[in-house]
Design a protein that fits this description.
single chain; 556 residues; mainly alpha; two-stranded antiparallel ribbon; two-stranded antiparallel sheet; 4 strands; 3% strand; disordered N terminus; disordered C terminus
Length: 556
């Protein structure tokens, strides 16, 4: 008989010696083919109830994701030991049928067998409940852990923290915090679990307090904080933490680079984005480390958001493998920078792939419609919108309707845009009505604008209504309906609303400078306004006529 492509040594005549030999080759097994050969030998030699061999065999099957074969092994064991049960529970804690994890645990405690749950059992079960968001079952395990004396185990308690964090919301974090505060021993994983809970519920102040209290931080701690700040809109804080991480000499992994690039994209911080790109080329590419597709996607997004579309396209073309996010990022990047034809060419190329990664999703189509809107491609936009469900099985969401209304309104098809709004299967939001109102301004349709404004004023709270009311007043002013302008102004005063001033910024030598209309707080304000006056005078000399139709009302 051949075993793993070798004959069993002739001197292995005793059962014990054969078991030890099989155990030793199990230790060095590295392929499923060899594992199945060893499995066969365990069966034909009558070792299916040797728990120490079965534990090892199950461990390999489960680690390789072969849960079906693991069950075949397990079902032949007459009296599984606790370690055997634990292997099966571990497998289901990571599987796609979490309910079977609970069923397996119940079988273990109800069978009346000698095997009893231990700290590993509870750690695997609670970890699986956390991963699958089985909160009720996890809370029941919490009670059993306390009753059976395993509550002080650091791994069990850490998984309980994960369980309540997975439950979400402030209540989940409070419960997680209670478990954490009761822990006698904590490790960096425990701290990271609690930190992630605060980040997930958007409590960045609470997360920062936990982060500052941590006796030890690893790359996961830093990544959680940096990504959490970026995802919750605190992008400056995110990059400040990224710089702190660099100064602390923590090795940067690809996940934290993705988070930092996201913050760079939101802030338009090209300097830091370029530094990260250089780091990737010098440290990761030079070391032949394969790059995550998501890291390349983040580079595309960063360069696109900073206006360096050529560099974004260069990265896109150099990718060995592209995901749907890669295609969508490139299409959206071209669209936002005004390269509508290029965006549609990439979309056409994407469809020619005939693979799952080349199948557009709702976000892809949003980028395509955005490109059509910016370029005024009305016919193409109509076709794409019409075929969304028919060709790709994508039901248009309110964002898609908003894009179509914007496209039609900009192009002057105001009646068609209005009909589309009125026929939407969902209630139009302020962005949809605002797109139609914007079209009324462009094409000086004050009657429709008045109708749209009435819809907006009824549905919006005062803070969000301000901008649209100012836009309506400009439409009336263009039509010389001064009485209506005064009425809008009076309404805004009564509502106590004021349109927030528009802001712009520019990065010079790594410093971001903010600008607001009429703002004299900048230290170089005098020089800035002097230069603006020179530019204005030069523009007039060259025949440019000032367009003051967009001058907004100053509402006290």
């Amino acid at each position: 008989m051949m075993l793993v492509e070798e004959a069993i040594p002739a001197n292995l005549t005793g059962s014990r010696a054969l078991q030890q030999y099989i155990f030793s080759i199990l230790q060095t097994c590295n392929t499923i083919k060899k594992l199945k050969q060893i499995h066969t030998q365990i069966v034909i030699n009558g070792f299916s109830n040797k728990n120490y061999l079965i534990v090892k065999l199950l461990s390999f099957y489960i680690t390789s994701g072969n849960l079906l074969n693991a069950h075949k092994v397990f079902d032949r064991v007459e009296n599984p030991s606790t370690s055997v049960w634990n292997q099966m529970i571990r497998g289901h804690s990571q599987g796609e049928e979490p309910q079977k994890l609970i069923e397996l645990y119940n079988r273990m405690v109800e069978d009346g067998a000698e095997a009893e749950p231990n700290r590993f059992t509870y750690s695997f079960v609670i970890g699986g409940c956390a991963r699958s968001r089985l909160l009720r079952e996890g809370e029941q395990m919490h009670g059993r852990v306390v009753a059976n004396g395993y509550y002080t185990n650091v791994f069990v308690q850490t998984n309980l923290v994960n369980l309540y964090v997975a439950g979400g919301g402030d209540d989940g974090v409070r419960k997680a915090r209670r478990v954490f505060d009761e822990m006698i021993d904590r490790n960096v994983v425990s701290w990271n679990s609690l930190l992630a809970g605060y980040v997930r519920c958007g409590d960045l102040d609470g997360a920062r307090r936990v982060f500052d209290e941590m006796p030890e931080r690893n790359v996961v701690s830093w990544t959680t904080m940096i990504a959490g700040c970026a995802q919750n809109g605190s992008c400056k804080q995110s990059l400040n933490l990224f710089h702190e991480m660099r100064r602390a000499s923590i090795e940067l992994d690809q996940v934290v680079l993705v988070a930092a690039l996201s913050a760079c994209a939101e802030l338009g911080d090209l300097k830091v984005g370029k530094w990260i790109h250089t780091y990737i080329e010098e440290k990761l590419n030079a070391g032949n480390q394969p790059l995550l597709v998501s890291l390349n996607n983040s580079l595309i997004h960063m360069y696109s958001s900073c206006g360096v579309i050529d560099k974004a396209y260069e990265i896109f073309m150099g990718m060995q493998r592209r995901s749907i996010v890669s295609w969508t990022s490139m299409i959206t990047g071209f669209a936002k920078q005004g390269y509508a034809e290029e965006a549609l060419e990439v979309f056409q190329w994407m469809q020619c792939l005939g693979t799952d990664d080349g199948r557009p999703d709702g976000i892809t189509l949003l980028g395509v419609l955005c490109a059509c809107s910016h370029a005024g491609f009305v016919y193409q936009g109509r076709q794409f919108f019409k075929c969304m469900n028919q060709n790709w099985g994508i039901v248009p969401r309110i964002e898609h309707y908003g894009c179509m209304v914007d496209l039609l309104s900009r192009a002057g098809f105001l009646d068609e845009a209005h009909i589309l709004v009125e026929s939407m299967p969902m209630r139009p939001n302020d962005a949809v009505w605002g797109a139609l109102l914007g079209g009324c301004r462009i094409h000086k349709n004050d009657e429709l604008a008045s109708h749209v404004a009435q819809k907006l004023i009824l549905e919006l709270d005062p803070d969000r209504a301000a901008g649209y009311l100012v836009l309506l007043s400009n439409v009336y002013a263009t039509a010389k309906r001064w009485q209506d302008v005064a009425l809008v102004r009076e309404k805004m005063v009564k509502m106590g609303v004021r349109k927030p001033a528009g802001r712009s910024w520019v990065q010079i030598n790594g410093v971001v400078h903010d600008f607001v209309v009429g703002d004299w707080t900048h230290k170089h304000a005098s020089s800035i306004y002097e230069m603006l006056s020179k530019i204005t005078r030069q523009a007039k000399l060259e025949g440019y006529k000032l367009d003051i139709s967009e001058v907004l009302l100053n509402v006290e």
